[in-house]
Amino acid sequence: MDLKELYQEIILDHGKNPRNKKKCDGFNKEAEGYNPLCGDKVHVFLKLDDNKKVIDVSFEGEGCAISMASASIMTEIVKGKDFDIAKKIISEFLTMIREGSKITINNVSKNENVTMMSLSGVKKFPMRVKCATLAWHTFISAAEEKKETVNTEKID
Ligand code: ZN
Question: What ranges make up the beta strands (E) of the chain?
């Protein structure tokens, strides 16, 4: 199996069997995101403890396969990490999606790195970039308690 097939397999798997697609128990932060270009909607639920560690994270929503797979992948990657670390990882993810760079941050395992890289193909489809980044922006918005809905039209 080449890398492209592996990446496709990962996205399909997350699309068919989304991880953490529910309201997680005891969430204390939440935010909504909307991608008007495609119609994707995502609602992120987050449980942060006093040390800003991501105890639990989940999502609900509907949208295209990429947006839902990406939301599922996001929850898997940030769960259990400190928010400050999660933020760094997300920033690297967003750069990877936009510029096609590699993920080099060492706060993720090899496996997590491959899972994130599975979405790298969207760079070739500018319309899909916002589908792939929606949940990640929405996670940050939830953690930072921004009240406004994340709208991908208003984000680079
Ligand atoms: Zn979409």
Answer: 29-35, 40-48, 54-62, 150-151
Each residue of 42-82: pLDDT tens digit?
999 999 999 999 999 999 999 999 999 999 999 999 999 99
CA angle 110, 98, 156 (to 5 degrees): 130
Q: Find the 125 Cα to ligand 1 centroid distance in Å.
A: 11
CA of 40 to the centre of ligand 1 (A): 5
Domains in the chain, CATH or no CATH each = 3-151 (3.90.1010.10)
pTM of the model: 0.96
Distance (Å) from CA 62 to ligand 1 centroid: 9
